[in-house]
Write a structure and sequence with these properties.
By secondary structure, the chain is mostly helical. It has one domain. The chain is elongated, with a radius of gyration of 22 Å.
Length: about 240
């Protein structure tokens, strides 16, 4: 005759699963904040100067900090999706896999952004040595590389993140794992951020212009609120 499980042992498994879920959501919230801080540190102001090639060798530390900070964004970006994937998969396996896949695509774009900064630094050093004869050629290369970096960081990367986040917030909205205000806010913020990227792509806005920053502000604020919610409250239990 099979021995009956004690009530205490029967309750231990769900309790353990709930604790694991809370740890995962809290970690996801921490990774959002880490990614946001790293994103702020990844900004390289010297690249916005008209004479940035002249200034790059003197701002090597700024370039290295920017590259290192954007590299930190790679595990933060993917880790967020990995932490939440077990829960999201129970709600919709197809949408959760799509969200995770877009996060890996975004991580690849992050890596392209990382390696572009050392390349710009090398170009700046060559520019300092070349003198007037080689300056026009190197200036053209520098502008091409800088423009490519902007398009990767502010168009390709944002669109990859945005497509994934549409799936993510769609799951949250349908499942009510967080308040619907947060999921609706997230969906609206993603649409606004993606629209800003299309404006950059078609030359209708600059990446440091007030319009672009304003259109990205709703999603940035929502991400911070969501991070705090995940850390303090986690997903709703059912």
């Amino acid at each position: 005759m099979r021995k009956k499980e004690s009530p205490g042992r029967a309750d231990a498994r769900p309790s353990g699963a709930m604790k694991a879920n809370r740890r995962a959501t809290a970690m996801a919230g921490v990774l959002v904040i880490v990614g946001m801080l790293a994103g702020l540190l990844s900004v390289v102001p010297v690249l916005e100067d008209p004479h940035y090639l002249d200034l790059l060798p003197a701002h090597e530390g700024q370039i290295i900090l920017g590259a290192a900070s954007q590299f930190i964004m790679i595990p933060a970006c993917v880790g967020f999706a990995l932490c939440l994937h077990p829960t999201l998969r129970r709600e919709s396996e197809a949408l959760s896999l799509g969200f995770l896949g877009f996060r890996f695509v975004a991580a690849a774009f992050h890596f392209v952004g990382v390696i572009s900064l050392p390349l710009l630094l090398v170009l700046g050093e060559e520019f300092a040595r070349a003198g007037a004869a080689g300056a026009p050629h190197l200036e053209a290369m520098g502008e091409l590389l800088r423009t490519a970096r902007d398009l990767v960081n502010h168009v390709a990367l944002i669109l990859a993140l945005g497509l994934g986040d549409l799936l993510f917030f769609g799951i949250l909205h349908r499942s009510r794992l967080v308040p619907r205000l947060l999921s609706c806010w997230g969906l609206a913020g993603v649409v606004s951020a993606m629209s800003a990227s299309f404006l950059v792509l078609f030359g209708l806005a600059e990446v440091v212009a007030p319009l672009y920053l304003t259109m990205n502000a709703p999603l940035a604020l929502q991400s911070l609120v969501l991070a705090v919610w995940l850390i303090t409250r986690g997903f709703a239990t059912r």
